[in-house]
Structures are given as structure tokens and as C-alpha cells.
Amino acid sequence: MEDVAAFAGVSRSTASRALNDDAYVSATAREKVLAAARDLGYSPNQAARSLVTRRTGAIAVVLSEPEARLLDDPYRTAVMRAGYRELADVGRQMVLIFSDTREDLSKTVRFLEGGHVDGALVFAPHRADPLPKALRLLRIPVVFGGQAAGIRRGVHVVDFDNEGGARLAVEHLVANGRRRIATIAGPQDQSAPIDRLAGWRKTLLDAGLDPADLAEEADFTLSGGANAMSALLARHPDLDAVFVASDMMAVGALRTLDAAGRRIPDDVAVVSFDDNATLAPAMDPPLTSVHQDPREQVHAMVETLMQLLDDQNLKPRQQILPVSLAVRASS
């Protein structure tokens, strides 16, 4: 900074204000300082700047799931990519944290409260997960992607309309004349699949259809979807449609239906949830799927976090993002 100031012919304080875009610097002085910084190859010392601003310039993205499952989950990988891009757009570095075991929990909390990051974007979908409650004691702002282990008050949440998405899917199937509409539900220890199952059930009842024994739970994996579809066909060989709670499980369901000689959509119509760009349009036939955009969710989370960093008194809120139905050949 001393060198930049001398090179520009201004005081050190003027150079500092110019580089920090302070309004109380003349345009001429600012141009001289910026030119000097470019010519000298100057860049601010982040450690020194942090002592003054009390900001690190880093944001944690915390995923509370086993690492192996995260890397095989198209939705979570999309979240990681979106986190990197959205944070880069606001000039922040992303610190990625996987938190799975109890040992991970204590390490994660210690890291977050150790002054290494300015805030956290947290994805902790399991209702029994202790992480959300532990994070409420932190002095940094936290925004949750999806419901925070069932905590409804005092937290900032950005989620999708999971129940409404399921309603769109089932109403589409009913409108096309389907009457034996089964579902492959996601794990019932998570809020999103619970809401999707509830949406399926309520919509069937509203249409005067019986949902009894037409649901099978799976684990958001391809094999889970295949096995669940086999179980449903064994119990109800006359089913004519299935709503699947994720694209990945729907891929497994399609394979089972094909192996069983069921034509899609003539014999069985299939609608899934996620509308993942690398899965849903690429299937044979292409999947009708409830569209949700992870980048839209992460963008809203980053926006909320930036507001919290500027205003610690921002009241907690639940932001529910709308979804839509991308109709393709599977239904």
C-alpha cells in the first residue's frame, strides 16, 4: 500500500480509500491509485484486510449426507456447482464441507465458529439430523436449503413446493385418464419426500381415487427405484401410472417396467420429480418431470445470506419456490 501511494503521488490513507471504493476520494486520485496498483501488480492482503473488516470472503456450503451418496446424487452435485457459481458471482469463495458422522458434526461446528467463514449455506434434509440445532448457536448467519430437520421457527429456509409439485404430477396423470396411480416415495426421514408423498395421497383422494397400498418407499437411488417398482407390480399388476419422487429412482423404475414388458406410456405412464437436465430428457422415453432448479434455490439462499451479512436483524423466514411440470413422452 505504501508503494502504491508513493507511485500514485498520494497519501497512504487516500490510496486505501481509493482501493476500497470510498466515496470521499476524487476521481483523479482514484484513477491514479488504480493505475499504480495495476502497474505494480498490487493485490490486497486478505489476512490483513480480515483484521479490519472482520470478513474472510469465504462462505461454507455444508452437505449433511454421506460423501459417497452425495457424489452419486444429481441434485446434490447440481447444488455444489450452483453454490460455486453463485458465490463467485458475489465475490465469495466456497468452502465445501461434508458432514456425515457425529465426529464430522463436532468438527463442522468448530470450523464454522472458528472465524474461517462469514456464513453458511446448509443442506441437512434428515429430520433426526442434530446439525441444524447445533448451528443455531453459531454467531455467523446460516441459511438452509430445504427444511432444517423439522425446525420451523427462528431459521432462514429456502425450499421448493414439494407437495404442490406432487399435486401437479398426479393431476396430470388423472387428467390423462389414469386411475391406478402408484408412487415410489423417497426416504420418509426427510421433509421433501414426506411432502411429495402427502401431495400424491391428497390429490388422489381429491379425485375420488383410493391410494391404499399403492406406495412403496425407496432411497433416491437407481436400484431403489427398480426394486420399488418390482414390489408395486407384484402387488398391483393392473396399475396404470406411477409418480416417482426423483428422476434417479424413475430411471430404475423405467428399467423394471421395460423388463416386465410394460409399454410406456401406453400401459404405464411415468412422472418423476427433479427434471434433471442430464437425466429426464435423455431417457427412453423422455421423462415427464416436476421441474425444480437448484441454481434458483442456491441463488435465493446466497441473496438471503448477503442480506444477513448486511443486516443481522433480518427476520427469519421460510421462502417456498414454485415448481412446474415439464411434460414429455413418458406420460
> What does the main sheet amount to?
6 strands, parallel
Number of helices: 13
Q: State the CATH class of the largest domain.
A: Alpha Beta
CATH topology of the largest domain: Rossmann fold
Give me the Rg, rounded.
25 Å
Question: What shape does the CA trace take?
Answer: elongated
The H-and-E topology, N to C, reads as HHHHEHHEHEHEEHEHEHEHEEHEE
Mean pLDDT: 91
Instruction: Give the helix proportion (percent range).
Output: 40-55%
Q: What name goes with the CATH superfamily of the largest domain?
A: Response regulator
Q: How many beta strands in the DSSP annotation? A: 12
Distance between the termini: 65 Å
Fraction of residues in β-strands:
15-25%
Q: Helix/strand-derived class?
A: alpha/beta
Placed side by side, the strands forming the largest sheet appear as: 2-1-3-4-5-11
Low-confidence stretches: none
Q: Mind telling me which CATH architecture of the largest domain this is? A: 3-Layer(aba) Sandwich
Keywords: DNA-binding, Transcription, Transcription regulation
Pfam family, one: LacI
Domain HTH lacI-type: 1-53
Protein name: LacI family DNA-binding transcriptional regulator
Blueprint (SSEs and pairs):
Layout: H1 2-8, H2 12-19, H3 27-40, H4 46-53, E1 58-63, H5 67-72, H6 74-89, E2 93-98, H7 102-112, E3 119-123, H8 131-135, E4 142-145, E5 156-160, H9 162-175, E6 181-185, H10 191-206, E7 215-217, H11 222-235, E8 241-244, H12 247-259, E9 269-274, E10 288-291, H13 294-310, E11 318-321, E12 324-326
Parallel strand pairs: 1-2, 1-3, 3-4, 4-5, 5-11, 6-7, 6-8, 8-9, 9-10
Antiparallel strand pairs: 10-12
Helix pairs in contact: 1-2, 1-3, 2-3, 6-13, 9-10, 11-12
